[in-house]
Design a protein that fits this description.
- This protein is α+β, with helices and mostly antiparallel strands.
- Among the domains are: 53 residues; 49 residues, SH3 type barrels, CATH 2.30.30.
- Helix content is 54%, strand content 22%.
- It has three helices and five strands, in the order αααβββββ.
- The chain has a five-stranded antiparallel beta sheet.
- A hairpin with a 2-residue loop joins strand 1 and strand 2.
- The longest helix has 45 residues.
């Protein structure tokens, strides 16, 4: 039984160390710069780093930084697009009501009229009817074609 326990522990330790290795597989720009600076500080003064090697390392660092910045930009763009899509759906729906007859309740009174425009005021949408009435889409009970 002691052998089984020892084997299980060894396997568990191996799995843990392989997970740790997976987390550090990627070299970020900060780590790359630290390695480059350490290499420059500890180089042999009688045998300095070859110019081509140094330029290659700087180009690699520049490429890494550009890829990181591009990834950050794409992430931000994705977040903006998600926000835009989330806010676009109701606006698109309400704009589709322009020229249509709506009915609803405003201050406990039944109203109806033709939608003239849609406005977003402080992140809340309002419909403006041809007679100047302002109504929230949440107060609309029916939408239909304009009657003649």
């Amino acid at each position: 039984m002691a052998t089984v326990d020892a084997t299980n522990r060894t396997v568990a330790q191996t799995d843990t160390s392989s997970n740790a290795a997976k987390k550090t597989d990627t070299l970020g720009k900060d780590q790359f710069l630290k390695i480059l600076l350490t290499q420059l500080q500890n180089q042999d003064p009688t045998n300095p780093l070859d110019d081509r090697e140094f330029v290659t390392q700087l180009a690699t660092f520049s490429s890494l930084e550009q890829q990181t910045n591009m990834n950050d930009s794409i992430t931000k763009l994705n977040q903006l697009m998600s926000t835009f899509v989330a806010h676009q759906d109701p606006f698109t729906t309400y704009v589709g009501w322009i020229g249509k007859e709506v009915s609803g309740k405003l201050d406990d009174k039944e109203i109806s009229g033709t939608v003239k425009s849609v406005k977003n005021i402080d992140n809340e949408y309002f419909l403006y009817l041809e007679d100047g009435t302002k109504i929230s889409p949440w107060d609309v009970t029916a939408v239909g074609e304009k009657t003649k």
